[in-house]
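Exercise 3.2. Students should predict the tertiary structure of the chain below and write it as structure tokens, then compare their answer with the key that follows.

Predict this chain's 3D structure.
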Amino acid sequence: MVEMLAMLQEIQKRKASKTSVRTAAFQNQKTALFSDARKRVDKAVRQGTSAIDEAHAMILDLKAKEVHQEGTLASLKALWGSQDDCVQGLLHNLGGMIEQLSHKRAEQINEASATLEAHITERENSRKRLLAQASVCIEENIENQKIATDANALIKHYKALLRA
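Answer key:
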């Protein structure tokens, strides 16, 4: 019985040593995992902090480059005002000339219209004469085309006779 007790104690010691070896291995793995996770977290925190700092610097840079609307609007108003003054001055100085030109142009148009109305019969006779001349030209061209077609057919006929 003593032997059995000794064997039992021996088995329990082996189990305990196996368990302690397993526990030690597990603890080592756990410690390694935790330290790796801490390193990755520290790296991620550093990267996040640097990204936030870069974004903050970029925002400050963009704000520094920002164009203020009030200044641009004021300069644009001044430019428009000077252009308006310039146009008003030109219209004031050239107003009489524009009136004279418009009256002269109206007179020229009225004279051309009166000339057309005064020579209606001459214009109609000229149109009829031009139409008659155009008809004669067209008829001559049609006749010349027929002659050319007949001559072409005659040449083909003579060629056919010479070949035969």
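Discussion points: The mean pLDDT is 86. The first helix runs from residue 2 to 65.
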